[in-house]
Design brief:
By secondary structure, the chain is of the alpha/beta class. The protein is built from 17 helices and 13 strands. The chain is globular. The N and C termini lie far apart (70 Å).
Length: 429
Amino acid sequence: MTYFRLYIDPGTGSMLFAILIGLLGVARFAFKGLWVKIRFLFSGGKAKDTSDQSIPLAVFSDDKRYWSVFEPILKELDKRGVDCVYMTASEDDPGLKSEMEHVKAECIGPGNKAFAKLNFLKANMLLSTTPGVDVYQWKRSKDVKYYIHIPHSPAEMTTYRMFGIDYYDAILCSGQFQIDDTRDLEEVRKLKAKELVLTGSPFMDEKAAKFAARKAEAEASSEKDTATRTVLLAPSWGPSAILSRFGADFIRDLLKTGYHVIVRPHPQSFTSEKELMDKLMAEFPDSEQLEWNRDTDNFDALNRSDILISDFSGVIFDFSLVFDKPVICADTKFDDSPYDAWWLKRLPWGLSVIPRLGAKLTEENRSDLKKMIDDCLEDESFTESRHQVRDEAWAFQGEGTKRVCDYLVNKYEELNKKESEEKEEAGKK
C-alpha cells in the first residue's frame, strides 16, 4: 500500500488559514445578527446585544514565560482600577492563578486556537510581547483600535523574524537604540511611522529589585559562595545558535573545565529543534556536574551562575545588566537573512555591544575555554563598560512600570475621546 504525505509550506498554510478565518468571520457575524433579531422579537423589542462588549485593555501572552513581563504592569493597572483581560496560550500560566479585582485571566488555547480568538477580538487596545501580528496566522481584528508591542527583554527590534513589528501601532521601548532601529526599518521599507515611546523596562526593574533583595538576604545570613564556579550556557535557537552550530562538542568543552554547568536552551528549541534537544539530553544527562534547566522563570539559573555563555540571545542583557556579571558570546557567524536586521545591512545593536560586556568566543580561541572563563571573571575592565551599556539599553531604571501604565491609561482616554468626537461629528452630518 502506498501512502502520500501532504506538505503545506508556511506561506500557503497562512493563506489557507486566512481564508478559513474569513469564512468563519462571515458565519459568526451572520449567526450573531440572526441571534440578535430572535432575542429582539422574543423580548418585545426591548432586548439589547450585550454579548460582545469591547474590552478596555486586552493583554496577550503566547507563553507562560512572559508572565514576568506582564505581572508588574497588571498589578499596577489593578491598583488604578483599570479593567483588563489577560489572555494566555498556556494552560499552566501563573497568571491564571492571580487574584486581581480588575484583571480577568483566561487561557485561549495554543497556536492557531489562540489566533482564531484574537482575530475576532473586540477591545480598545491590545498589549503583547508577540511579534508577527498581521504577518501569518495572527491577523489584526477590525474591532481592536490599537495594537501595542512591549519587548520581553532590552534587546533590539531587528532580531525579530522579518516584519515582526511592522503592523503594530505603538512600541514601548526600553532604550533609545530600539527607537533608532525601528525608525531606520520604517524608512528603508517605506512603512508608516509607529508611535515609539521610551518607557524603560518593567521586566528588568522587577528582576533588579528581586536580585537586590536576594543579595541582601544572602549577606545578612553570611552565605558564602561555593568553591566551584558555575557556568550558564543559555543560547538562542535556530541555525545560528550555539547548540545548532557546535552541538555536543561545545558541551564536552564546558565539562572539561571542571566547573558546574547549567544548560538552559531557549524554550523554542524544544519545539523547533526537538530532535537535537532529545539527542543532547540523552548524551549528556543530568549529573553532579551538569544540569538542564527548563524553569519558566530564568531568575534562579541566572542568580546561581558566575558567568554566562550565549550567542545573540536577549538573556545576555538580563545577566550582564541586572546581575552585573560578565558574559562570553560565541561567534556563530550570525545569519541575518531571516531577521529584520538584514534590511539595515549592519550588525544588530546587541551583537555590536558584546565586546563591551565580555569576551568573544571563536573557533580559534575555543581550545582553552577554562582560561577564557577565568580571565573574564577576574578582569575588572568590563565592569565600567557594562554599566555604560546598561544606561543605553535600560532607560528610566526603576520607573518602567509606572511609565508603561501611565501611557496605557492616557492612550485609552485618548482613543475614547477620539471615538466620541468622531461620533459627534458624524451626528452633525
